[in-house]
Amino acid sequence: MSSLIIKDILLIKRTILLGFIYMIFLVFAFQSLGSDAFISAVVALTYILLMTTLAYEEMNHSDIILNSLPIKRSNIVFSKYILTFIYSIISLLIYFIVVFVISTLNINVNVHYMNIMEIVWTLFYISVFSGIYLPIFFKFGYVKSKIFNVIVYVFIFSGASVISNIFLEDSKYFSVNSILKFFQNHTEFQISICLIGITLAIISVSYLISLYFYKNREF
Amino acid sequence: MGTILEVKNLRKDFKDFSLKDISFSVEKGFITGFIGPNGAGKSTTIKLIMNLLKKDNGEIKIFGLDNVKNEVDIKNRIGFVYDENHFYGELTISEMKKIISPLYENWEEDIYNKYLEKFNLPSNKKIKKLSKGMKMKFSLIIALSHQAELFIMDEPTSGLDPIVRSELLDILSYIIQDENKGVFFSTHITSDLDRIADCIVLLNKGEIVLNDTKDDILDDYTIIKGDKKTLQNISDTDFISIKENKFGFEGLIRKEKIFNKFSKQNIVTEKPNLEDIMLYFTGRNLNE
């Protein structure tokens, strides 16, 4: 298992270095946008790292060799979930290193240090993205799943505006106030626990679906 | 001796092709050549053995174990070389080795180093920068370095120059001196097998048309040539296949049939090689 993860990190070592440049650029570009912008920057970097890895897998037809080696298919699937978590940590680290360096350099840039709550939200968004994407990847492979990627983007952007409209209309069943109330009535700690719970649930369900798909894949 | 790989009534259906309930076995201490034209189903069979494809029916037993239920255990004991390199091109030889070696239970670093030196492979070079022959050699080293008992080779010699091919064949002959090991070698370059194979499985259009020891096959059949008059009281069915032209005929036939059907004066016989056997049995290249 560790072998599989080391392999993936070796494959994208150059992309990780590019991640620093990407983050420096975004920290400058997003300085007036506030914390949400940085959450999305970290989520996007994790996503880029994951996509690059999966593209390498496809480019090398590595399913054939991995499945000819003495590795359980479940380990191949599980390693990608662990990897996503590791990439999240790497992306967060890159973010904090860049922010730290910029703030010590005393340049006239507004930097924002994420707090714990924002980190939990970041991990939550990553788990939603990868939780949806990985089963599709394990079913269809990288090239075909890219189409789904586009659909996911469209869905998220169009879906977000639809959902926010619903919230703003204050329907009988569901109002933006009830969500606000939830956040107001609970401490950050409680909300974090709740988010971590949802994250784990998403990842577990996603893993089981991925495993089912990959066990039935043919190469 | 014993059976190391046993395939029974193996079936796999695709939209435009099916493998039709094939059965054969690979014995310990032998090199079994798996031949047939392109598209005969050789790679499909190998992928089914390696559980890269799901069989629709039948049974595959390796070391007496079911190939799906005991997949990891079996793969620890298999060395494989495929026609294309599926290693990560971006990684160097030594990086790739570091990734693969912990996956095998019985990895032998000494043997790996010995072969690396013997084949002169540069450990720090990226795999995508290696020549085709070097990539094959790297696959072969991996296959040799974990005490594998069964070697599965899918067209390992395709696209290689005669020198590299010859080196590979020498190594296979060396491996097989250990009588507990077996080699299953698919190729359409039959001259490789003329040299080293003990047994032959001939596949055509998803069916096995011939499965015997190489010596028996080459002894049992003969090529005969003669002029058309000789053919008058012989039916085509006596031949495995036959090609005719204006002047005469040439066909592959079981040896014993010659004696009752032909008078020796009118024909010429010729010992076939595996290529002749494959061409006549698959009916290709005839009547041109």
Give structural notes.
- The complex is a heterodimer of chains A (219) and B (288).
- Chain A is 83% helix and 0% strand.
- Chain A is mainly alpha-helical and 219 residues long.
- Chain A is globular, with a radius of gyration of 19 Å.
- The model of chain A has no long low-confidence stretch (mean pLDDT 83).
- By secondary structure, chain B is α/β, with parallel strands linked by helices.
- Helices cover 31% and strands 30% of the residues of chain B.
- Chain B contains ten helices and 14 strands.
- In chain B, β12 and β13 form a beta hairpin.
- In chain B, α4 (109-118) runs antiparallel to α5.
- The longest helix of chain B is centred in the middle third of the chain and has 14 residues, at 162-175.
- The relative contact order of chain B is 0.15.
- The mean pLDDT of chain B is 86.
- Chain A binds chain B through residues 2-4, 6-7, 10-11, 56, 59-62, 64-65, 67-72, 216, 218-219, and chain B through 47, 50-54, 71-73, 75-76, 78, 80, 82, 84, 86-91, 95, 98-100, 102-105.
Report the portion of residues of chain B in β strands. 25-35%
Mean pLDDT of chain B: 86
CATH-defined architecture of the largest domain in chain B: 3-Layer(aba) Sandwich
Give the overall silhouette of chain B: elongated
Question: CATH superfamily name of the largest domain in chain B?
Answer: P-loop containing nucleotide triphosphate hydrolases
Q: Which residues of chain B form runs of ≥5 with pLDDT under 50?
A: none
Largest sheet of chain A: none
Order of helices and strands of chain B: EEEHEEHEHHHEHEHEEHEEEHEH
Q: Please state the overall shape of chain A, judged from the principal axes of the Cα atoms.
A: globular
Q: What portion of residues of chain A belong to β-strands?
A: under 5%
Roughly how many Å is the radius of gyration of chain B? 21 Å
Largest sheet of chain B: 6 strands, mixed
Point out poorly predicted stretches of chain A. none
Structural class of chain B: alpha/beta
- Total count of domains of chain B: 2
- End-to-end CA span of chain B: 44 Å
How is the CATH topology of the largest domain in chain B named?
Rossmann fold
List the strand order in the largest sheet of chain B.
6-7-8-3-9-10
